[in-house]
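Researcher: Please generate the 3D structure of the following complex. Treat every line as part of one assembly.
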Amino acid sequence: MPRVVFTPNLLRHLDCPPTRTEGNSVREALEAVFVQHHQLRGYIVDDQSHLRQHVNIFVDGQPVYDREHLSDAVGADSEIYVMQALSGG
Amino acid sequence: MSSELERYSRQIRFSGLSEEGQRKLLNSRVLICGCGALGTVLAETLTRAGVGYLRIADRDFVELSNLQRQVLFDEEDIASHQPKAIAAAEKLRRINSEITIDPHVVDIDHTTIRPLMEGIDLVLDGTDNFEIRFLINDACLETGTPWVYAGVIGSHGQTMPIFPHESACLRCLIGEIPDAGSAETCETAGVLGPAVNVVSSLSAVTALKLLSGQKELVPLKLMIVDVWEGSLRSMDVSSLRDQSSCPACQGGERLWLSGERGSQSTVLCGRNSVQVAPPHKGELNLPELAERLRTAGEVSLNRYLLRLTLRDEEFEITVFRDGRAIIRGTDELATARTLYSRYIGS
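Model: Done. Output below.
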């Protein structure tokens, strides 16, 4: 099962530890996580379920191609990393 | 080795750099945008390494809460109300008097960034907000100047090299600035000095490779580090530009450099207050923002606005649902923008 990891700056206010979940695509894996952690949805996708502009996702270190449908395939051992840029410095 | 190079002898002996690389460093010119946590570490590292010319731009002054991580400052700088760029320059000149340090006390915006970038080989990100980063991105795309993005919050940080029109730019990575109030800042989530040091050091290594003429050694990676967790991730961004349809680096859009985007700030005459508007309108989640700000001071809230009275400073910040804020206790635009970035976000 792929592992979904969220950027640490989301973790501070939301319950979203690294999670192993079912899914053959980024969309399927995220939807499975959203079922358990519904608050996450609004931070990751917009009201049309497209990836939010200030968020990016990497699968096994490669950026996803399909930001609208999140159809990029994931393998059983894949890491899906959800990143947000950081403002501080 | 000539005597002028003696102070750099240990890094010259490093085979990756050598005397030839050192001479290129000495002939290089770098702009560091922002001289806070990231900026001070970058400035000190490049000064010690012998980068020949450092231009340092910052709008802020030194405060007590800076000293935990901003390595060039001390208590005397606070007592003397020193601007950060000036205080940093004094320290850096004591470290290396053989290079040129050019400090600018300036609010970096679309009117000031072009002159700051004149004659510059590389721009390094030492800022603390998205707005200036997107402005740097525009300006570097326009001038073809390479730059290194960096950001840090808590124990977590990121850095990525950007070669205009060759590799992914910042807007290829993130298309938009997060809505005001939706992203953490160092004021709300805190920041650890070691996280700053690691991220700055990764950026500095990129700078040393580039400035010593070894661009081919710079990997097109977004490095993501968390010093508390003990993790370091390396994300491949070599294909990101081609797959992003970026309006900035492929479409030529320069929203921040043209001034079309960017905070609008206005002094409210006779009120010792400044109004700051976010770069774009959005609906703030005020209760969520209130939760995040409770550690910073006294927070009150109604349907229409949130009011924060800072615990340690004599400012009061009133934030409206559309992201607009009135900051009482100053009539300085730069101070108001700094407070807005710190507590509300970029």
